[in-house]
Amino acid sequence: MKVKKKKNMTIYKISNILESTYNDKVMSVLDHFSGFYKIYESGYKEPVLVSGVDGVGTKLRLAIDYKKYDVIGEDCFAMCANDVLCHGALPLFFLDYLACGKLDYTIVKKIIQGIAISCKKNNTCLIGGETAEMPEIYKKNDYDIAGFCVGIVEKNHIIDGRKLIQEEDILIGLPSSGVHSNGFSVIRNIFSTEDFMKSFQEKPFYETLLIPTKIYHFPIHTLLKKFLIHGLAHITGGGISDNLYRILPENLSAVVKKEKIPIQPVFNYIQKKGNLSEHEMWNTFNMGVGMIIVVSFKEKYHILNKLHILGEKPFILGNIVKGNKKVFLK
Predict the structure, then answer these.
(1) Residue 202, by phi and psi: left (phi above 0), alpha (psi -120 to 50) or beta?
(2) Which of 24, 27, 131, 287 has the fewest beta carbons closer than 10 A?
(3) pTM across the whole model
(4) Are 152 and 165 part of one and the same domain?
């Protein structure tokens, strides 16, 4: 009963954080067993719901060790929202699953605040979630988190690279904010606790590693109002090759020119310290590319110009050629 009472008190205390993200489409309250969100007045003719689920991986360990709990929430939202974005969807609402060894309101609040801040920035409602206290599974201060994002898109506006990408299309890269949320098992095998505290670019190295995953909602949806995007690839685990492969048609391949990518110093530092091969690096990390936009070569300059106006730093990193669904890193 004490655990249940404590959990209920935590829900009550964080309710104002969730409610700060609500709009007039939210119909539920936290006492409900589920979240309600009305879409019948959304203005879509043939609305399609697009869902995504993800976590933060072992970046969690680093965030917990250095008590950067808000980062956990921001990353969780970003990983889910960027995936939903890849099909042209506008995020509607978000839910989280938070598991821990022992419930600590202060920590839970910081994690939820991280999610809520990202939700508000991207017009997404944090309408609920689940907090599970499992002392037999997790240590006292250990946490795990998963997020669930649901978006909406008009049926005839769904971005599906396998159907839209054409020969001679151009690959435009949007920079990542850093390592994002992938490759941390490799990183933690390379660097010691002392290494994480060493200065890198005038601050402790762990601070660079914990920079939150960039969210690409604003630039992509701004482009979609004017341009036809043939494909979007969120560069996560498996690097450029694995994620770009997922959106290619069977009869086309992608050529990526590594020298065109502005590789961030953090990746060179990781490679040198871990004595990692080029193959290991490019198949584990984003290498400075957070999102790849596939567009017609006829529109590349207009799109690049628009992205620059939006404050982005885009770069052309390759193109689409005839082939049998392969990604060539050159």
Answers:
(1) left
(2) 24
(3) 0.94
(4) no
